[in-house]
Every structure is written in structure tokens, then in C-alpha cells.
Model the fold of this input.
Amino acid sequence: MPFNILVLACLAYVIVLFLVAFMVERRSMAGALPWLRSPLVYTLSLSIYCTAWTFYGAVGYAARSGLEFLTIYLGPTLVFVGWWWVLRKLVRIGRQQRVTSIADLISSRYGKSNLLGVIVTVIAVVAATPYIALQLQSVTLSFGVFASAPPEGWVVEGNDSTSLWVACGLALFTILFGTRNLDAKEQHTGVVTAIAVEAVVKLVALLAVGIFVVWGLADGPADIFARIDASRIATWDLQPGRWAGLMFLSAAAVICLPRMFQVLVVENADERHLATASWAFPLYLFAMSLFVVPIAVVGLQMMPEGSNPDLFVLTLPLSQGQGGLAMLAFLGGFSSATSMVIVAAIALATMVSNHIVMPLWLRLRPAQAVAGAAVSGDVRRVVLLARRFSIAGVLGLGYAYYRLSGGSSSLASIGLISFVGVAQILPAMMGGIFWRGATRVGAALGLTIGFAVWAYTLFLPSFGPDAVIAAGVFAEGPFGLHWLRPRALFGVEGLDPLLHATFWSLVLNATAFCIGSILTFPGPVERMQGAAFVNVFDAGAAGPQGWAGGKAEAEDLLIMAQRILGEEAALALFEAEARMQGKAGYLPDATPGFVEGLERRLAGSVGAATAHAMISQLAGRVAVTVEDLMAVANETAQIMEYSQQLEAQREELTRTARQLREVNEKLTQLSVQKDAFLSQISHELRTPMTSIRAFSEILMEGVPPEMAGQYARIVHDEAIRLTRLLDDLLDLSVLENGSVQLNLGLTNLQQLLDRAVQAASHTRPEREFTLHRNPAAENMFIRTDGDRLAQVFINLISNARKYCDAARPELRIVVRHRGGRVMVDVIDNGSGIPKASQALVFEKFARLTDQTRAGGAGLGLAICREVMGSLGGTIGYLPGQGGAAFRVTLPLRLEKAA
Amino acid sequence: MTAHVLLIEDEPNIAEAIRFILTRDGCRVSTHGGGVDAVAAVHAARPDLLILDLMLPGVSGLDILATLRADPATEALPVLMLTAKGQDRDREAAERAGASRFMSKPFSNAEIIASVRDLVAR
Done:
């Protein structure tokens, strides 16, 4: 089969996967796709446990070590069937705490310790490196099978350029797949679906090869059993220690591997899916392992001596001329490798960027980070960039390991090194979810020591003698310390290196973890998180999100919701909830269910992380993860900007509304005033007209002459009264319009007052007033409109003559000169004006009583006020003078307004 | 029988005109110029007809009317309401308060005589 076609097939396959992922993401964004969230997809996605190691390596493993390969399947099966409740607890915690990775879980459990996050991330990356190298190796090998010319070249030599290209291709593929956008929830529906498709492809491929081997190459099951009995696999004897160790390792790995944690916990959409997976996943593993032994046995028999048993799945069909089947097998292996690499790289990149890059970035550039937050999407860009570089870095490490280790070890032994590495996380994890006494110090100690022991006894030696650790150290120990030999710690010799490393690393790890935890006390956040993790099902009983213990106030929630959803939508949401709870108004009880629903609603607007962090804050939870903070750093900027705009708009609206209200009030007031004014005018006009009409009719009908004279006089007086009223109204209208023409000139105040007293004497001339004046003080010249000013004093003196109710009426006119202003007080000795009316007297038609018949319409003081205004002065009532008192103030020298 | 008409009106000239017209028509007319003591004046005079101005010093004619209508002794007294405002809502207010008839100033003498005759005849 031409190499080019193979590459094209791979590319086409990858494009199909990419399209699947893309479509699913699009559809799931547009609306629910129930079957995508089904337990089946979840179970299939778990099959990333079966990597290229499983696909190719299990056959090789079986060919080398017989049934021991089964341990790799038995471990997970035991976990899923027997330890289902542990998984359920993990999933529940993961969902409740919005855990984004295994490093996040450990960090979160031990009081948000970023140090632990870093340690776990480092362990995970280092441990995953051989594993990724393994995928590179298997894909490279499988490419090599097709590349070398058949039939003689089944022995494959490491092809450096191929592995490099594979690494680059996978990196690109993963970046495209996993970091197209920053998903706050860290769930990748599209990727998970693509992986489920790959799971089907690899299962079908392996079954197809198995069926071909059993029924095509052999004569059915009976023949196969006979061949097995005849092969050396049958003679292989069980090593109980190694079996137990391997089963334990694979059981630990299925929980602790970052990629398994990703699909098992992070991508879990529904806890109930776990129930299905608990039997379906072991079933899948069973199907995957069903034909391993037959393929191995037949391969050993049919393939030439020295062929790599890891590639029997591929080479067997090829050697029989089954190009199509070989292609299917190749795609199966390719699927296994790519799905593992994609998920592992995504999981590791999330950890690296969340626990190493972002904290560093935020610390190194605090000023820019804060300032940069104003630029929307800045943090988001950094995160995406960090993830992309992390993916490239992880694959680069894998490639480096592949080159360093020579790419010659069998697939299975590489995989097991990784298993032991990630198993170091197990004590901290299990202790974290079952033992409240576990502390950060214990976890850090255990992880560090376990990691160091693993690196020293298994990982570094895997590069071979003299590669990293000198050969002398293997034989004599470092610095001649015999008991520190990597393969025989503390003098324990003769043990299988894998078991040796597993035993010592985990024993020392767990011991350090326990001792460290017992000797130290957890911090407050740690204690709270510990309780939340260990008692996750208690909290969960009250509500899936566990907001039960929170103390969120409905009003605070409403305020926050208003800022994010907008006032109207938030109020509608809260009102609907309140109504459902049977309460009136807008504030429902903050029940866990309601808070959870609200969080989901908010997540739709600002992203789950921010929503979670904000509600956490209100609910009094300290559960803010690095992911939360990071998302908040970015999203807060957008929210702040948005809410500032909203705030500005709101203020402007409020201001406009206030202005409108004021204008409206003024208009209403004006309208009321106008009505009252017209009503008053009507009254003032109709009253004299009534008398005039009635008496003219009487006169027309003929009356005795002595009466006629009296009645004619009444008609005449009332006509004059009408004229005066109209004059006053016109006067007032002119004054109020400000269109009055002032005739400025020098006037002697004394003469002016004389004139006013003289003119006012026509009012009730029968009354005799005693006048008190001070001619000396009055004798000054003022620059003003003398006629207008005289009008004011005539009005005041007339009023005094009209209304002063003293038996011996007196009038005092007091003139003072202060600065540039002149004050003239006009004071009588009557009973004055009641306090309540003092402010009213200057209003139009404010005539207080009609008991006098002087005929004023109540416009006099209003006119005075307008006149004084136009003369640059004031007029006011002066209380406490023992009678009605008015003070006129005016400038000594009035200049024309510029 | 001569009808006794009580006129409560603060404008002396108007009061004089009405007094003259009605006296000439054969009524006995008493006048009262105050507002605050109007109700007492009605009780003292016990007229056959009351002519009441709407705007009196210190008190509204409507209040006086309401007081009279609330008193069994005067609840059936015919009342002719006079107003110089002449707006529709004043008329409505007067009718609500129980005025028998409503006239706006200025009026023709014939009108007021006809109204008084009509009200007294009832």
C-alpha cells in the first residue's frame, strides 16, 4: 500500500473527526442534543483508557508475558464494578466544585494551594511524557510497517522524521481540537463525541482483525484453543506479586491519569451516566481484550522470527494481503493514539496553563494584568496561547523522551512507567476525599517524595544506564551509598524493577502523607474544603450545587442579577420565582434550587466561572479556583465596562427623567396658576359688570329721579373700577414680560414721597392719618424711574389707608441709606397681616378680605413686586413692627442693564 | 302672600340692585354681607328663598349650602346660587351641593325675577 494513500487516509480521517467535533459543538450550542449527553457517549469516551498501547501493545504484551496483559484491563474493571462509589464521589465533587483537572482537584481540596497544583501538574506532565512517547512510537511504527517494502521488511527501524511529523501533526490537531475557544466549564462536547467515534473505530478494527485471525487464518475457536495450548503463552506461569501490583497500578491509573480524570470527572454531564459506565466500560474492555491472545498466538506462529509482536495487529493482515483490513487496523491504532494524545494534551495543557503559566503571568505582570484587563479578551488570549504552547510543549517532551529512550522498549513497559508515576497522586486524592484530617503539608510531602522515588527508581533508569543516571550508580548507589541503588532501595534486591519502584514510591508517599497530615493542622479554607469533599453527599442531599449552606441574600442576588441580566429580565426572573414560592414582590427565598438556577442563568450571560465565583462570593463560599479567578479577571473587565456603560446610561436616564418631572411639575403648576388666574379675572370682571348691567336695566325701566342719580353714580364707579382693573392687568402683564421701558433719571426721594402721599390721599379721603417722616433722611437723590417708584409708594400708602384698622391710624415712613442701597419702610399701626398670609400678599388677587369696598382687585402688591424687580430692588413684608410694615429696597444708582 | 327672600352677597352694589328689583316685584328682601355668619343669618331670617353668592369673604358659598342641606330645618329651602366665575365646573359643584338653581353674573333683571318667582312658587 503506498505511503501517500496512508497519509491521505489519516488526514481524511482526522478531518472527519474534526467535522464531527465541530458539528456537535455547533449543534449543542444551538440546542440540546440529548443523545450526545447519553451514557453511551460517556462510556465510549472513557475508552481513551485503551490507547495505542492497548491496541498494539496488548498483543505484544501477550506474546511476551502471556495473560499478564489482562491485569491492565482487570484493574479498571475492578474499579468500575467494585469501586463505583469512589468514582461517584469523585464525579460529585468534580461537578460541585467545578473541578477542571486532577491538579485542580488536589489543589482545591487542600485549601486552594497552588503549590499542590504545581506539584501535581509536574507529576502529571512528567508521567505523561513516556505515555505520549508511546503513542508517537506506535504511530511511527505503524507508519513504518506500511513504508517499508513488503514482504521482507517486517523489521521496523525507528523512523526519526516520521515520528517528528507525527508529533507535529498531533500537536496541530490537538490545538485545533482543544483550544479553539476557551470554555469556562472546561467541557469539550465536540471533542468527547469525536473520541466516542474513535472508540467505536478502534473496537471495530480490533474485532475485525480478531475475527479474521480466528476464522480466516485459523479454523475457528477450537483450532485457536489448540494453537494456544501449543504456544509458549500456555507455558507462562503466573507471578502473583506482579499480577497484584499491575492490577493495583492500572486501577490507580484509571482514576489518576489526567486524561482519564478529564473524561471521567470533568466531562461528565450527568452522574447517572456512571451507573451505565460501571458495566458498559468493563464490557468494552472485555471486547477489546477478547482477541488479544488469538492474535498473539497466530502472529507468533505465522510471522517470521524477530518480528515486533507489538505490530501483529497490523502485520498479520498485511502479510495475508488484506490491505483493507490492515488499513482499518491502522486507523484503529491511529484512533487509539490520537484520542489519547488529544485528551491528555488538553488535560495537561489546562493544568499547565491554570497552575503554572497563569499564576506566573499574573504575578510577573501585575500592573499590566490589571491595566490590560481593560482590554477585553486579553486574559483570554493569554490563556489560549498558554494552552497552545503547553500542548506543543507536552508533545515536544513526548518526542524528546521517544528520542532519548531510543524508541526501542516495548510499548507495555513504557505505559507502566507512566502508570506508576500518576499513581503517586492516589494517596493525596483518596485521602483528600475520605479523610478530613488530610492536610496540605501531608499531601505535598507525600506527592514530592513519591514523585522523587518514582523518578529515581523507575523513570530516570528507563532511559537506560548512563543516559541520565550513571551505570555506576545502578551498581553501587550514589556516592557509594549502597542502600540507595535505584533498583534496590534499602537493600531490597531481587524484586522486579517495576514492583520495586511501585512499592517504595507508594509506601514512602503514603507514609509521608499520613505523618505530614497528622503532624500539621489544616488551615480554615482547607478545613472547609476538606469537609465539602469528604461529606460531599451530605451537602448534595440539599442541592446538587450545594448552595444550601450558603447565606446568599435574595436582595444581593437580585442586585447582581440586575447588573448582568438587565433590570427587567432579572426582576421578571425573581418575581416568577417569588410567585412560585407563593410570595408577593420581587424577593424569593434564596433556596438552593433557585440559586443554582440563577447561576445557570448568569452563566449563560457571563460564563459559568464568573457566575460561580460571583455567587460563591454572595453565598459566603470561599470556593474560588484559579480558573474562577482567571475567568473573573477577564470577564470582570467586560462586565465592568458593560456595567459602567449601563450605569452611565442609567444616570443619564435618571437625570432626564428628573428634568422631565421638574418641567412637568412646573407646567402643571403653571396650568393650575393660569386656571386660577383666569377664574380670578373672570370674577373680578364680572362683579362690576353685574352691577353695571343690573342698574342700567333698572335705569332704563325708569326710576324716581332721586334714585336715578344714585344708581347712575354706581354704574359710573363700577365702570371706573373695571377700567382700573384692566389698567392694572395690562401693567402687570407688561411688567411680568420684562418689556417695561424704564425712564431713568435723578429723583429726589423726599419729593417723590410727597407726591405719593398726596396721590394716596384720594383713597378713603375721609380717614385722617398721622404721618411720621424724617425729611432730613429722605432728602437724597436717587437714580431710578421716579414714576414707577412713586407707583409703589402710592400702592403701599393706599393699602395702609384702606386696611389699617386702628382707631387713630398712623403711618411712619423710615428711610435709611446703607452702602449703595436705599431702604424705605412704610409702617402703619393696624393689626398687620397674619403670619400665614405674609408670603401670600404679593401674589396676584391675594386680597385677604373683601370687607373694604375700595374696589382693588388684589393686584396692587403684585404690581409693586414686579416694579421693584425691574428697578433692581425688592419689596418685602417686615414682621414685628406693631402693624403692617413693608420694606422697599432699591439701589441708589440704577444703571441700565447692559 | 309676599315671599321673604334672604340675599347673601358681599358686593354692596350688587346686593342693592337685587334688593331693588325683587322689592319692586313684591318680595320682602333682607340682605346679609358676611360669609362666616351666613348660616346663622339664614336660621334667624327663616326666608322662603335664599339667594347665595358663591364667593364670600372667608368662606365658600358651597360650604354654606352644604351646611344648610345637612340641617333638617333648611334642607328643603330653595336656594338660588350666584357666581361671578361662571365656569362649568362651578355650576356642577353648585348642583352637587344642592343648589335649586344656578345663575352666573352678570344676569338680566328679568332672568332673576323669573327664577325667584319660579322657586317661590314651588
Notes: Chain A is about 70% helix and 5% strand. Chain A touches chain B through 22 residues (CB under 8 Å). The two ends of chain A are 104 Å apart (CA to CA).
